[in-house]
Amino acid sequence: MSDTNYDVGDVLWVIRSDRPGMNALQIQEVITKRTMKGEDVQYLVATPGKSNPFLLHTVPGRLFQSIEEAKDVLYKQATDAIDSIIDKVQAQASESFGIARKPIKPVDGLDFIHGMAQATKTTKAQSVQTFQKDLIPEEGYEIVEMDGQQVKVKLPDSLG
Prior knowledge:
Number of helices: 3
Shape: flat
Radius of gyration: 29 Å
Distance between the termini: 65 Å
Helix content: 25-40%
């Protein structure tokens, strides 16, 4: 147990060491025991959906007080696992097929994922404007129906 003090109601995030995953824990009780040898503090915690509290020190894993810190560690663990898989497969291919191992350019997972999210974020107005300007020719559309008949469609000025 760390020297960190928690209060009743605090929410902690634990990345499990006994299995993959993360859990939220809430401090339900703080038990302070004072003896001639000193003071011992134990915490009873609960997980969402379970009513029986249990001792915090029995939870195998690493504790975080912010979900952002836990998320960063999870990204690092995932990136390390992916790198390990790639290294192993590259070594097998190199040994079996006689090909040279190529260095792989590292990708910062947080920046990559953040960049993808930013690139795909558009407002409804931006999407409509893009549709209006980029996809609708001024002369309209020529549509060929299933029976082979050609039809010309021009959208109203409010859309084009």
